[in-house]
Each structure stands twice: as structure tokens, then as C-alpha cells.
Specification:
There is one protein chain. By secondary structure, the protein is mainly alpha-helical. The protein has one domain: Heme oxygenase-like (Heme Oxygenase, Chain A), CATH 1.20.910. Helix content is 82%, strand content 0%.
Length: 220
């Protein structure tokens, strides 16, 4: 079993809890409320900008030219997806640019993005990649499961199709391969830190979707 597979297996119950969240179940059924989906899209756009920055920092830390290109491209793609949210879902669901700009990050989104950026700046390359991996991998697998059970005429089908597509899964496999390569030559202490970073990010993935369903906001 590869190192990335060990990461997945160690967090398999958390993944199952994520798939079973009301947000994802109702998204697949097409019954998710418009308010909850709009809340999610706004926060996802905020998140992707921070994720792109974390990927750009990671590219600068890469141990070779191939890694630099891989994660610089991933950073660019995160920003392009964020822009497509504005042109696509935000426009379709009547979210004005001013509304997006005026909406602050929720506690869950703020926690997640702060963790990724702090890890990208402070931790070594292998640990940073382990923290970034859940966003790639969990999104892809959740998207695939939702796609398999998506209701006919689902108003959110275009979102489902994006994350269930082969292109996205190919990117996940490439990141896993890089993580496996780095883990193979890392010290035990570094591999333990990679496990910790992956698990923390996977928990934050759960929190992000849970917060969207609850329309999470700052209590004060």
C-alpha cells in the first residue's frame, strides 16, 4: 500500500462522514436549498483564492522543476475556477459581485484557509503537500459519489460534473504520486507530520460543507 493510500485508509471513516453530510446528500438529490448553495459558492470562491496562494507557495518550495510546474499550474487552475464561479454559478443564481466582495469568510472557511496558508509558509514541502491533498482528493471522490446518485434534472449538475470528471481525477493521481515520492525518502518524523496535516485538512473539509449547510456565520 502506498503512503497516500495509508493516508486515505487512516481517514476513511471521516470521508464517509463527509459523504453523508446533509449538504452532500441533498446536493445529489437536487433538493439542496438555493440559499445554502449560494452560501457555499461564495465561501468556495473565497477559499479557492487562498488555496491558489498556498499552491503558489508550494510550487516555490518544490524539490525540482517538475514540481514547480505541477503546483504553479494547480495554483493557476484554482484561480481560474474561482473566476468561473463568478461567471457561472454566481451569475446563474443572482449573486452580484458586490455581494461576494461584501461577504466575509465564515469561521470554517477562515480556519481552513488560515491553516493551509500557515502550513504552506511554515512547513516543509512534503508536509505542505499532505495538507493540500484532501481538497484535491476528497472533492474528487465526493463528486464521483454524488455524480453516481445524482437525480435527473439536478439543478446543480454542472457542479457535480466538474468534480466527477476524469481531468480532475487525473490531477488527484498526480498529486498522490508526488506525495508518495516525497514520503518514500522522508524521515519518520516528517511522515508523521504529513499524516497529521492530512487529517487536520480532512476535518476542515468536513467542517466546510457542514458550515455551508448550517449557513455558518460569526456568532458575534
Amino acid at each position: 500500500m502506498s503512503f497516500s493510500q495509508h493516508l486515505w485508509q487512516a481517514n476513511a471513516p471521516l470521508y464517509q462522514d463527509t459523504v453523508q453530510l446533509p449538504f452532500n446528500q441533498e446536493l445529489a438529490a437536487g433538493t439542496l436549498s438555493r440559499e445554502r448553495f449560494c452560501h457555499y459558492v461564495i465561501q468556495d470562491a473565497h477559499y479557492l483564492l487562498a488555496y491558489g496562494r498556498a499552491l503558489a507557495v508550494t510550487a516555490a518550495k518544490a524539490d525540482g522543476a517538475e514540481g514547480m510546474v505541477q503546483f504553479a499550474r494547480a495554483a493557476q487552475e484554482a484561480v481560474l475556477v474561482e473566476r468561473s464561479l463568478h461567471d457561472g454559478f454566481m451569475s446563474e443564481f443572482g449573486i452580484a459581485p458586490a455581494q461576494f466582495t461584501a461577504t466575509p469568510l465564515t469561521p470554517a472557511c477562515h480556519h481552513y484557509t488560515s491553516f493551509l496558508l500557515a502550513t504552506a509558509w511554515a512547513e516543509p514541502y512534503p508536509v505542505t503537500l499532505a495538507a493540500l491533498l484532501p481538497c484535491f482528493w476528497i472533492y474528487a471522490e465526493v463528486g464521483r459519489e454524488i455524480h453516481a446518485s445524482s437525480a435527473a434534472g439536478n439543478p446543480y449538475q454542472s457542479w457535480v460534473d466538474t468534480y466527477a470528471g476524469e481531468e480532475f481525477h487525473a490531477a488527484v493521481r498526480a498529486v498522490c504520486a508526488t506525495v508518495d515520492r516525497l514520503a518514500a525518502k522522508a524521515a519518520d518524523e516528517t511522515r508523521a507530520a504529513m499524516h497529521t496535516a492530512y487529517t487536520h485538512a480532512a476535518r476542515l473539509e468536513w467542517m466546510f460543507w457542514d458550515s455551508a449547510y448550517r449557513l455558518g456565520d460569526w456568532p458575534v
